[in-house]
Design a protein that fits this description.
By secondary structure, the chain is of the alpha/beta class. Helix content is about 35%, strand content about 25%. A hairpin with a 2-residue loop joins strand 1 and strand 2.
């Protein structure tokens, strides 16, 4: 059974030179599984994720023939209904924690804010739940981190705080936008294990947006490849390294290989008909 169904999603931004379509006719379904979305910067991956939460604001405009989450029509839902969905049922981990964490609030206050305001928990219970979330993302000294300011955290620590914040309400669908981009390889493996457990144990759906094709191939169940606002290829994650579309092959060819040639990596060949869609 599909948790999310999207048909013909279009996202348009009005500019001084006319409308620009950032997402053009994207369609896919998501069950309680791990769906990867890959593509170069500007291909529409993040905009697609933000559209599910209706986080595109004017001059942006979202249109879709169908965008349904667990039976709820997201295209017609009111802003009040969307606020009730964001957090408890739909959550998104943004790519850069420096822009997602409030610089003038301590980390603990930000982790507890939703629990106090939305869930009406007492401060002691909210603090206990926030600390448990930090421990779940492998933060060794959660009490100290609760009292820290965002600028006192490393990039990797900030990213783990953001993941903890999104997981506190135990959403049904998590959209993770480059959640491991600021992490070293060891911590990256720990975070991926956490996300994997959430999908397996809680039955959560996960949209994993990344530039790391090898990581997506190892972690996800299915992969969507985006180019210029469109999905150009959909395949099982295990088949990603054997992709047939010229664009996907071009992305794979750009990956450095251990023991490979010392020559400059090739760039994408955009002379084919596919590049002009």
């Amino acid at each position: 059974m599909s948790l999310l169904e999207i048909e013909n999603l279009r996202v348009t931004f009005e500019t001084e030179t006319g409308p620009v379509q950032a997402v053009r006719g994207v369609s896919f379904g998501l069950g309680r599984e791990r769906l990867g979305i890959v593509g170069e910067s500007g291909s529409g991956k993040t905009i697609t994720g933000r559209s599910v939460l209706r986080l595109i604001r004017p001059p942006g405009r979202i249109e879709a023939d169908r965008m349904v989450f667990d039976g709820i029509d997201l295209t017609t839902a009111s802003e009040k209904q969307m606020r009730a969905l964001r957090g408890p049922r739909l959550a998104m981990v943004m790519q850069d924690p420096k822009y997602s964490l409030n610089p003038v609030m301590r980390v603990g206050a930000q982790l507890m804010e939703g629990l106090l305001r939305r869930d009406r928990l007492g401060r002691a219970e909210a603090r206990k739940k926030a600390i448990a979330a930090l421990e779940a993302v492998q933060i060794r000294d959660p009490e100290r981190v609760m009292e820290a300011w965002p600028h006192e955290l490393s990039g990797g620590m900030g990213q783990r705080v953001m993941i903890a914040m999104m997981l506190i309400p135990e959403p049904d669908l998590l959209i993770a936008d480059e959640p491991t981009s600021a992490l070293d390889v060891t911590v990256q493996a720990e975070v991926m294990a956490i996300l994997d457990n959430l999908v397996r144990e809680r039955g959560m759906g996960l949209i994993f947006i990344s530039h790391d094709l090898r990581l997506v191939a190892q972690f996800c169940d299915r992969v969507l490849v985006m180019y210029h606002g469109r999905i150009v290829e959909e395949l099982a994650a295990g088949d990603l390294m054997n992709a047939r579309h010229p664009y996907t092959q071009g992305l794979l060819n750009c990956l450095p290989k251990i023991g490979g040639s010392r020559e400059p990596l090739p760039g994408l060949d955009r002379t084919g008909d596919w590049a002009n869609v």
